Amino acid sequence: MLRIGVLASTRATVMEPILEAIRNKKLNAEIVCLISNRKDAYALERARRNGIEAIFIDPKGKDPVDYDMQVASELERRRVDLVLLIGYNRILSSKFVEKFRNRIMNIHPSLLPAFPGWDLNVHRAVLKSGVKITGCTLHFVDEKMDAGPIIIQKAVEVREDDDEETLKKRVQEAEGEALVEGIRLFEEGRIVVEHGKVRILR
Questions:
Q1: Superfamily in which the 2-200 domain is placed by CATH
Q2: What pTM value is reported for the model?
Q3: 197 pairs with which residues across the strands?
Q4: pLDDT tens, 43-96?
Q5: Which residues are tagged catalytic?
Q6: Can you give the residue ranges of every domain in the chain?
Q7: Taking Cα atoms as reference points, which of 30, 75, 66 lies closest to residue 51?
């Protein structure tokens, strides 16, 4: 069984479709812990409600690399196979990335490399640009922000009456689908990274 650790700073809304897929036996996986850098993050409460160990690690006054190593040590103690970033608002140190190379997935609310950045700022930029299609990107995390090897992308239509919240809601639905699909491929050993690109084995 695949052991998953989640890093989250906000609500971790798109963890729900993963939990549903696990309950419905569509994934042979377990979320063993959720770690947050914010004490007031609803993600911690969401984890507790679902019987997942919720861990707050305070970043205040800590060197970023030391903080990451503390997080890494908690993940390793729980024998985590795959790390998911769900709305995690910290840039991971290269030391952390190296430790979990090609085992850290981030879900991003646009079709990268277009519209990098964070949460509502991304949807705001999408709406301002006038593009007709946006979506989400599931990618492995490397040393550059929002630039690691892309695993899955899902397209979402931008409607004329969309605002940031309505667009975010539909993109989140696509994010849930991409995460479940990506976890399944990882669990089946079908994701290969070659020359900085992902190849999915049939």
A1: Formyl transferase, N-terminal domain (3.40.50.170)
A2: 0.95
A3: 194
A4: 999 999 999 999 999 999 999 999 999 999 999 999 999 999 999 999 999 999
A5: 108
A6: 2-200
A7: 30
